């Protein structure tokens, strides 16, 4: 949920939404309604979601889990579904992280915490690394905090 900076009529009808966009020369549908999100990255907000996400799901289809929505027009005010596409690379990375298969993202933060808290017995690290399809160095670097430093 995103805090809406604009106390407009909610929920909007589709006609409201069309009425709140301004079509630019590039064919962008610039959102004239509320904006929200981090101060320096204000983005359209529709029904308490980012406008690009709402527009994509409304006119195109479901967004892959965890994907960002990119603008082919580079116009963050735009909600024209023709200009929106999910960032599938990003979605793939998330997918791989969740399955522990990616070379640079083998562990989720929760796993890092759990594995660091675990008392490892002799041979267990090698067995665990084999089971996960990672090297023992990858595992011990993470456990010793040489990697995943940002996980507290
Ligand atoms: Zn656009």
Assembly status: single chain
Small-molecule binders: zinc ion
Biggest sheet: strand arrangement: 3-4-5
Largest sheet: 3 strands, antiparallel
Distance between the amino and carboxyl termini: 25 Å
Count the E strands: 7
What number is the mean pLDDT? 83
The outline comes out as elongated
The helix fraction, in percent, is 25-40%
Uncertain stretches: 3-9
Number of helices: 6
Integer-rounded radius of gyration:
21 Å
Broad structural category: alpha+beta
Provide the domain count: 2
Summarize this structure briefly.
This protein is α+β, with helices and mostly antiparallel strands and 152 residues long. The chain has 6 helices and 7 strands; from the N terminus they run αβββββαββαααα. Helix 5 crosses helix 6 (136-143).
Core attributes:
2 domains; 152 residues; three-stranded antiparallel β-sheet; disordered N terminus; 13% strand; alpha+beta; binds zinc ion; 7 strands; two-stranded antiparallel ribbon
What does this structure look like?
35% of the residues lie in helices and 13% in strands. The chain has 152 residues and is an alpha+beta fold. It has two domains: 14-89, no CATH class; 106-143, no CATH class. The strands form three sheets. Strands 3-4-5 form a three-stranded antiparallel sheet, with helices on one face. Helix 5 packs across helix 6. The chain binds zinc ion. Residues 28, 71, 73, 75, 78, 80, 83 line the site of zinc ion (ZN).
């Amino acid at each position: 949920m995103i805090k809406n900076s604009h106390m407009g009529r909610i929920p909007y009808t589709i006609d409201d939404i069309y009425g709140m966009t301004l079509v630019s020369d590039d064919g962008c549908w610039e959102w004239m309604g509320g904006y929200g999100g981090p101060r320096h990255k204000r983005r359209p907000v529709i029904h308490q979601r980012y406008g690009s996400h709402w527009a994509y799901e409304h006119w195109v289809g479901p967004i892959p889990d965890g994907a960002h929505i990119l603008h082919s027009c580079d116009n963050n005010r735009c909600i024209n579904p023709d200009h929106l596409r999910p960032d599938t690379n990003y979605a793939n990375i998330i997918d791989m992280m969740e399955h522990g298969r990616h070379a640079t993202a083998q562990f989720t933060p929760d796993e890092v915490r759990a594995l660091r808290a675990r008392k490892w017995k002799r041979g267990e690290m090698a067995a665990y690394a084999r089971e996960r399809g990672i090297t023992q160095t990858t595992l011990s670097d993470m456990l010793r905090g040489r990697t995943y430093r940002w996980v507290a």
